[in-house]
């Protein structure tokens, strides 16, 4: 066989072949290049992962392959072939014939990616209706087979249910079933596991892995390098519409060549020791306007001790929690203690559902207690109990040894400045009518307006200091949070929480909605602030990696109970409870 | 979140066939003041400008009708009866030779006044009921909701008709009647608005910061509800004008020969086969006023949502 | 009036991440029947309550009318009724009883469907209502159907036909929704009756007589429903599930008919109860414009001459019809949107 033949052979074998794909969007007169010269190949039984952060152009790439980039998109390519079809030359009818039969698409969240008004059976049967001449009864038989094939138990029952009636894992399987009903040689999976719990994510990845082994070519799109590492043969790292690095998975993850890839890998908190910086320390030239870590040190009123030498490297464990100048109590005493907390709610059908069940924990001063669990495990309710926003049915919360949960709200209100909170959705936590300055002024002045020129000047100074301490430029003070990026919003949320100078911060999924690199910056910031101010964190997350990186002590929550608790290192190294083990095994990590 | 809550009415009808694409990207946040200004102006659709101009015209007509026409709205000139629209009488004349344009201009005052007053009455009642339900304990909420359900069982004009049956016809009663009839709808909106604001993240954040319920109400709930109410009121004035005109048309509000659009229309209907302009122009102005108020109200709602 | 739109649930579920409330469990079978029964029982009890409250409100509201009701019965203050005649009228209508007795008496009569005797016509109010009810129901039901068809057509065209269609239909919708039907009716008469003579200006029995009244009622409603539906068609066309459908090879027409339209119908269905109510009150106007016999005209005449028993009777019947229609739309809602069936009865 000549070399040319071999090339021809492999070209024939590719299920997807993209060369120099360019996509531009027209908005009015302006045109934005969203995908700029992307190219890759996928052969049967291969998985190529396209990894990038939001706005990198990875989803647009996927949709362009299906001819679904939209009317305002201008798509061009030197080559864009699905199997033997040249996508760019296909008419609408031919494109429709290709979709579903030659390529299947799996989107992020099956709750909304399957029509919530139709049964999953009908959604799956649609693919068969559109591409085959099967009779309705043959179709439903086939639907049941496909459902069983993707591991849905009792397919005859599930086929009659709608996405909202199925659990997250089952409905994601049903979505995959609808994409592979016609056994397309190529499956495009756009963030297929992003909305899922760790253990469910593991199951879906295993399903994709199996499809791969059966010969399906997979284009996996994800923001998460760790997830991708599980099943990808090839990884292409995308940013700003370009692929900056492409190669075998082990090579890209193990020996990244491009700076951006290294940044992404470094930002993954899983397995990174406590206190390690995740984001690179920005050079002064690169600071504006998002990340200005450098300026946060020294300008903060509370943390003159923490100096430059502690940043960037690993902080030795004993020094932690002692740095805060405001600390009068020795590290190790309880900042917040929960004893036997229980809370149940009435569900719509009248029965009571226990959401938090006999939960006890101690948050030590200057330390971080990580609370990890999957959705529905009662984490958020625990956070609300700790904040005194809901009264527990049983049990108590004490703050620095003083009563907290049993206090009357009127008595608790003046004490609230001791404990602050940041949330997963910072935008929703800001009054939409206010700009950053007003938000912070309100938090600083306890709602009273500053009086006199002196008062106003002092207030302006405090606002500038607060913004500075969270690494935001003062110029941002006049913006409304709506016009800030996700990372900037979370920084404003942190600044507001810090304004009354609290001792404790309850962080409820503070980085879950953020891109990896931004997440890294925010985690670094939280870490830094803890050292400067001796803060105690109750850190809640579904993400094991984040919790491991942030916590001194870890409590694992499952079904309303804390099933295991202990020093972070011990729990992650030698999980005692079976559920923790399952969680840890399911958690994807690099390497 | 507040996005959808801010607009309990119809979502904006601006033709936004959103596409997946770069529009989804977060604002990189480098907008300067001038760009802000341009954004706001850019968001003012052509329709909104036209609507604003129409309302300004009507406002002038209501406040100083003599600026727009020199003729007397009640001055009869039997010789000029039933003149079709002409350069001298833009909208023609009626059976007594009165100039229709003049009467339409003078009619703006009573129509706008009735519309604004009725909406005001409706909103005040609605804010009282809605705040009780939205802020009060469960039992109050339950009670107010039942009351609203009962009021809803008198659909549309029915509550107004019942009120007029009791207190007799006339401009004042028909204004109050329209206000009463619109109140339940507003009250439900105010209630759900307050509920959704109460459940929003920033109220919880304010609680965590140690704010008292009174402070939270004054500083967060009230301003946020008020923004929505203003848009709602604009929309409501348009509707109230139509309703009040309907009552006049039915002979329950203003009575001919008063220059009121509904009453003019009703009087002109007798001559529909010989003089169409008697009915056409007053009605067209009702449509113009109502449509303009709708367009502006929508614009305000959209702005509230995007802010 | 456009103010009830908040009752329409938007079909956009939130993000599935994090939020514990969204952690949905597999649907438990068997609970459905129980929920349905509970729902039905709640609704019927609610309807009875509302009817009782409506009757009470009217009963005491009527007492606010200045003047002597007995005098009103005998033809108003102008009739110069003798004291004997007044006393006799009081006895006949039970007006000499204590207020509370009268109230109970009234409730009892209403509960058995006895609305009393018309002051003006001297015939049972029930008879007066029955005479008009059929005609008005035909008018309103047909108008509702026509409004729906117009709204669907408008929404589909607006979301399919590009920029121009979107702009044109926006104007159409806003103008249509702002048009008072008393004016629209008159304006429609001009070309079709006066000009071309195709359709009768005075409503006659039969189909031709229905065309103009139906259009007069349907067009403003269609404008309103059209706005609502277009917005939700656009939302649905933007939703991930339509991307999934397209990726499955569904055509744009298929996406609209199978997926988007159903989602678009939801808010419009929720509002149909309200729409029906507004049609009934619109019937008051339209029946007057087209001189069409019906409940609306009966009511208007009764209001004008203060024929109180007729006013009460009509209002009670309209409230009853309205409640029935509301329950029916709620039921339609639950059939069209299975998600509602899983939740509790009330929002």
Write a concise synopsis of the structure shown:
Chain A is of the alpha/beta class. Chain A has 22 helices and 21 strands. Among the domains of chain A are: 113-183, no CATH class; 333-430 and 500-586, Rossmann fold.
Q: Which helices and strands appear, and what pairs or packs with what?
A:
The complex is a heterotrimer of chains A (591), B (307) and C (347).
Chain A: H1 3-13, E1 16-27, E2 30-42, E3 47-51, H2 58-65, E4 73-76, E5 79-82, E6 85-86, H3 92-98, E7 103-106, H4 110-113, H5 120-131, H6 136-149, H7 155-158, H8 168-180, E8 186-190, H9 198-213, E9 217-222, H10 225-231, E10 234-239, E11 242-248, H11 249-254, H12 259-267, H13 293-296, E12 334-346, E13 352-364, E14 368-373, H14 379-386, E15 394-399, E16 402-403, H15 409-412, E17 419-422, H16 436-444, H17 452-469, H18 486-498, E18 504-508, H19 516-533, E19 536-541, H20 544-550, E20 553-558, E21 561-567, H21 568-573, H22 578-586
Parallel strand pairs in A: 3-9, 3-10, 7-8, 8-9, 14-19, 14-20, 17-18, 18-19
Antiparallel strand pairs in A: 1-2, 1-4, 1-5, 5-6, 10-11, 12-13, 12-15, 15-16, 20-21
Chain B: H1 2-5, H2 33-43, H3 46-63, H4 100-135, H5 138-152, H6 157-167, H7 171-198, H8 201-208, H9 213-249, H10 261-268, H11 277-306
Helix pairs in contact in B: 3-4, 3-11, 4-5, 4-7, 4-9, 4-11, 5-7, 6-7, 7-9, 8-9, 9-10, 9-11, 10-11
Chain C: H1 31-62, H2 69-73, H3 83-92, H4 99-111, H5 125-160, H6 162-178, H7 181-195, H8 207-238, H9 240-247, H10 252-289, H11 295-305, H12 308-336, H13 338-342
Helix pairs in contact in C: 1-4, 1-12, 5-6, 5-8, 5-10, 5-11, 5-12, 6-8, 7-8, 7-10, 8-10, 9-10, 10-11, 10-12, 11-12
């Amino acid at each position: 066989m000549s070399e040319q033949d071999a090339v021809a052979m492999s070209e024939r074998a590719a299920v997807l072949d993209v060369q120099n794909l360019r996509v531009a969007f027209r908005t009015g007169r302006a045109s934005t290049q969203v995908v700029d010269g992307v190219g890759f190949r996928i052969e049967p039984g291969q998985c190529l992962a396209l990894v990038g952060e939001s706005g990198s152009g990875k989803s647009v790439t996927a949709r362009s392959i299906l001819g679904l980039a939209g009317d305002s998109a201008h798509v061009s390519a030197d080559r864009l072939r699905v199997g033997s079809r040249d996508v760019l030359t296909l008419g609408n009818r031919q494109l429709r014939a290709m979709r579903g039969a030659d390529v299947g698409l799996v989107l992020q969240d099956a709750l909304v990616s399957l029509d919530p008004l139709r049964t999953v059976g009908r959604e799956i049967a649609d693919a068969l209706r559109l591409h085959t001449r099967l009779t309705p009864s043959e179709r439903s038989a086939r639907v049941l087979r496909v459902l069983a094939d993707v591991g849905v138990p009792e397919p005859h029952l599930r086929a009659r249910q709608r996405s909202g009636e199925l659990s997250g894992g089952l409905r994601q399987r049903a979505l995959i079933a609808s994409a592979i009903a016609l056994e397309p040689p190529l499956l495009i999976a756009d963030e297929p596991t992003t909305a899922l719990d760790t253990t469910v994510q593991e199951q879906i990845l295993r399903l994709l892995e199996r499809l791969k082994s059966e010969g399906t070519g997979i284009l996996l799109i994800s923001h998460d390098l760790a997830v991708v590492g599980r099943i990808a043969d090839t990884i292409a790292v995308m940013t700003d519409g370009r692929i900056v690095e492409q190669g075998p998975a082990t090579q890209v993850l193990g020996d990244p060549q491009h700076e951006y890839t290294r940044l992404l890998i470094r930002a993954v908190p899983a397995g990174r020791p406590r206190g390690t910086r995740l984001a690179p320390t920005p050079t002064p030239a690169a600071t504006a306007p998002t990340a200005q870590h450098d300026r946060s040190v020294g300008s903060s009123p509370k943390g003159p001790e923490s100096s430059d030498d502690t940043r960037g490297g690993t902080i030795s464990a004993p020094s932690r929690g002692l740095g805060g100048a405001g600390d009068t109590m020795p590290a190790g005493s309880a900042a917040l203690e929960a004893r036997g907390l229980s809370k149940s709610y009435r569900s719509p059908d009248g029965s009571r559902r226990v959401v938090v069940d006999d939960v006890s924990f101690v948050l030590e001063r200057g330390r971080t207690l990580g609370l990890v669990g999957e959705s529905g495990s009662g984490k958020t309710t625990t956070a609300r109990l700790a904040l005194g926003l809901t009264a527990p049915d049983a049990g108590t919360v004490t703050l620095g040894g003083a009563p907290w949960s049993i206090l009357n709200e009127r008595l608790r209100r003046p004490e609230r400045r001791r404990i602050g909170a940041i949330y997963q959705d910072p935008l929703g936590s800001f009054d939409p009518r206010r700009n950053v300055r007003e938000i912070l002024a309100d938090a600083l002045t306890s709602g009273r307006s500053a009086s006199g020129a002196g008062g106003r000047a002092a207030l302006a100074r405090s606002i500038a200091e607060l913004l500075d301490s969270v690494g935001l430029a003062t110029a941002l003070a006049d913006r409304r949070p709506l016009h800030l990026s996700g990372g900037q919003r979370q920084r404003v949320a942190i600044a507001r929480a810090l304004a009354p100078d609290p001792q404790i911060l309850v962080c409820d999924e503070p980085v879950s909605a953020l891109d990896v690199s931004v997440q890294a910056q925010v985690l670094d910031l939280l870490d830094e602030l803890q050292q400067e101010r001796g803060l105690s964190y109750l850190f809640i997350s579904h993400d094991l990696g984040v919790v491991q990186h942030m916590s001194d002590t870890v409590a694992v929550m499952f079904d309303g109970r804390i099933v295991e608790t202990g020093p972070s290192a011990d729990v992650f190294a030698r999980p005692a409870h079976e559920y923790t083990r399952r969680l840890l095994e399911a958690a994807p990590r690099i390497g | 979140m507040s996005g959808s809550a801010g607009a309990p009415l119809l979502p904006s009808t601006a033709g936004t066939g959103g596409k997946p694409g770069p529009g989804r990207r977060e604002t990189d946040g480098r907008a300067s003041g001038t760009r802000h200004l341009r954004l706001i102006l850019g968001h003012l659709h052509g329709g909104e400008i036209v609507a604003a101009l129409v309302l300004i015209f009507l406002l002038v007509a209501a406040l100083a009708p003599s600026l727009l026409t020199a003729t007397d709205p009640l001055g009869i000139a039997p010789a000029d009866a039933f003149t079709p629209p002409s350069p001298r009488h833009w909208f023609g004349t009626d059976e007594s030779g009165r100039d229709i344009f003049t009467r339409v201009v003078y009619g703006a005052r009573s129509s706008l006044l009735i519309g604004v007053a009725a909406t005001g009455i409706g909103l005040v009642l609605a804010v009282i009921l809605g705040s009780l339900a939205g802020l009060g304990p469960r039992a109050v909420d339950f009670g107010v909701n039942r009351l609203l359900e009962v009021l809803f069982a008198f659909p549309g004009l029915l509550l107004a008709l019942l009120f007029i049956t009791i207190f007799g016809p006339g401009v004042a009663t028909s204004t109050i009647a329209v206000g009463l009839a619109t109140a339940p709808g507003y009250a439900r909106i105010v209630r759900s608005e307050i509920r959704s604001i109460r459940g929003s993240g920033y109220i919880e954040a304010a609680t965590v910061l140690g704010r008292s319920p009174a402070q939270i109400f004054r500083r967060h709930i009230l301003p946020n509800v008020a923004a929505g109410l203003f848009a709602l009121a604009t929309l409501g004035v348009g509707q109230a004008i139509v309703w009040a005109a309907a009552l006049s048309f039915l002979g329950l509000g203003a009575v001919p020969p008063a220059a009121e659009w509904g009453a003019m229309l009703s009087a002109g209907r007798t001559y529909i086969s010989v003089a169409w302009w008697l009915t056409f122009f007053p009605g067209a102005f009702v449509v113009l006023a109502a449509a303009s108020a709708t367009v502006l109200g929508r614009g305000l709602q959209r702005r509230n949502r995007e802010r | 009036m456009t103010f009830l739109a908040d009752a329409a649930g938007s079909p956009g579920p939130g993000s599935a991440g994090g939020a514990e409330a969204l952690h949905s469990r597999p649907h438990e079978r068997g609970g459905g029947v129980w929920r349905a029964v509970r729902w039905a029982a709640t609704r019927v009890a609610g309807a009875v309550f509302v009817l009782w409250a409506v009757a009470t409100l009217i009963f005491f509201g009527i007492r606010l009318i200045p003047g002597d009701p007995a005098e009103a019965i005998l033809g108003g203050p102008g009739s110069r009724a003798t004291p004997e005649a007044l006393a006799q009228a009081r006895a006949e209508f039970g007006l000499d009883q204590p207020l509370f007795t009268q109230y109970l008496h009234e409730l009892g009569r209403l509960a058995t469907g006895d609305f009393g005797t018309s002051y003006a016509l001297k015939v049972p109010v029930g008879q007066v209502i029955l005479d008009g009810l059929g005609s008005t129901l035909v008018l309103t039901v047909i108008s509702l159907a026509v409004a729906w068809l117009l709204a669907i057509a408008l929404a589909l065209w607006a979301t399919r036909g590009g920029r121009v269609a979107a702009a044109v239909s926006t104007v159409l919708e806003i103008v249509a929704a702002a048009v008072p039907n008393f004016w629209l009716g008159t304006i429609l008469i001009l070309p079709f009756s006066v000009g071309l003579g195709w359709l009768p200006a005075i409503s006659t029995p039969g189909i031709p007589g229905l065309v103009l009244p139906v259009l007069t009622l349907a067009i403003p409603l269609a404008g309103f429903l059209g706005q609502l539906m277009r917005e939700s068609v656009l939302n649905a066309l933007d939703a991930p599930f339509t991307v999934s459908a397209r990726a499955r090879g569904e055509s744009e027409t298929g996406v609209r008919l199978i997926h988007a339209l159903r989602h678009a119908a939801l808010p419009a269905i929720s509002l149909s109860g309200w729409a029906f109510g507004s049609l009934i009150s619109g019937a008051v106007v339209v029946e007057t414009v087209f001189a069409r016999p019906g409940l609306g005209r009966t009511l208007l005449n009764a209001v004008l001459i203060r024929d109180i028993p007729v006013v009460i009777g009509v209002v009670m019947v309209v409230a009853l019809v309205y409640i029935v229609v509301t329950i029916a739309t709620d039921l339609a809602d639950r059939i069209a949107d299975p998600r509602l069936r899983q939740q509790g009865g009330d929002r």
